[in-house]
Automatic annotation (TrEMBL):
<dbReference type="Pfam" id="PF03466">
    <property type="entry name" value="LysR_substrate"/>
</dbReference>
<dbReference type="InterPro" id="IPR005119">
    <property type="entry name" value="LysR_subst-bd"/>
</dbReference>
<protein>
    <submittedName>
        <fullName>LysR family transcriptional regulator</fullName>
    </submittedName>
</protein>
<keyword id="KW-0805">Transcription regulation</keyword>
<keyword id="KW-0804">Transcription</keyword>
<comment type="similarity">
    <text>Belongs to the LysR transcriptional regulatory family.</text>
</comment>
<keyword id="KW-0238">DNA-binding</keyword>
<feature type="domain" description="HTH lysR-type">
    <location>
        <begin position="1"/>
        <end position="58"/>
    </location>
</feature>
<dbReference type="GO" id="GO:0043565">
    <property type="term" value="F:sequence-specific DNA binding"/>
</dbReference>
<dbReference type="GO" id="GO:0003700">
    <property type="term" value="F:DNA-binding transcription factor activity"/>
</dbReference>
<dbReference type="Pfam" id="PF00126">
    <property type="entry name" value="HTH_1"/>
</dbReference>
<dbReference type="InterPro" id="IPR036388">
    <property type="entry name" value="WH-like_DNA-bd_sf"/>
</dbReference>
<dbReference type="InterPro" id="IPR000847">
    <property type="entry name" value="LysR_HTH_N"/>
</dbReference>
<dbReference type="InterPro" id="IPR037424">
    <property type="entry name" value="NocR_PBP2"/>
</dbReference>
<dbReference type="GO" id="GO:0010628">
    <property type="term" value="P:positive regulation of gene expression"/>
</dbReference>
<dbReference type="InterPro" id="IPR036390">
    <property type="entry name" value="WH_DNA-bd_sf"/>
</dbReference>
Amino acid sequence: MKIRQLEAFRAVMLCQTVTRAAEMLHISQPATTRLIADLEEAVGFSLFERMRGRLHPTAEAQALFEEVQRSLVGIDRIAQTALDIRDMQRGSLQIAAAPALALSFLPRAIAAFMADHPQIQITMLPHSSRTVVNMVSEQRCDVGFAILSMNHPSTHGERLLSTRMVCAIPAGHRLASQDVIRPPDLAGERFVSHPRVLDSRLQIDALFASYGIECKVQVETQVSWSICAFVEEGLGVALIDPITALEYKGDGVCFRMFDPLLTTDFSVLFSAQRAPSILLKAFVAHTRAFALARLDPRFVVA
């Protein structure tokens, strides 16, 4: 007994003629007749009586039809589920992300993605980049977005994009009228910065040291959004990533090009134990395109 025979049987039961059943199955009328004959041979009893050019189901066929219908509905459901997975209309993603992305940018990117994939479910967990790396390696999430340099793609991660840091200064600051800020312009200024445990802080300190300029850090915080808030309150100037600058909603901060180049790399991390799903690959591609479409091209390195 084969599924195709059962499908032909159901079609004839529903359509009541072999001709319409064949049309429903998109096969020829003789092929449909052959499937019904094969099924009758397999079950050992007649399924239809032919009277005046029409097929009439036997009592045995009626009893069999109830079970066939239940079984084929289950198969149809499996087939539909497979189509939904292929077309990314079913599934879930658990995302861990650094605050620079999680606080505003990723919610907007996720909303745009879900507009095209409304049936999927997404969980987003904001954590430090270090924690994101650990969560991915321990398979506690499907994907991680972290501030992390990754110049060579691998099976467990790739660079999302590399960006150019910008200078954040309070509105009305003496440097607000300049298009480009350079290290000598910031001599004597108070700084708001990340702690020294982060690579971005080490980059900044090393650059200013090479110019013989002391960074007078007055406030430290791990969250770039908070850095912007401190700058807006007049507690200093800062160098931050352009995604935070793009997403920050306060009116009291100006963001300017900073020269020379200091980079912030955003990377996407996958579990090394399982390959990314179709849905996950599509989401990563969408997130990259979403960022590139909104960032000032001057602030995108690669």
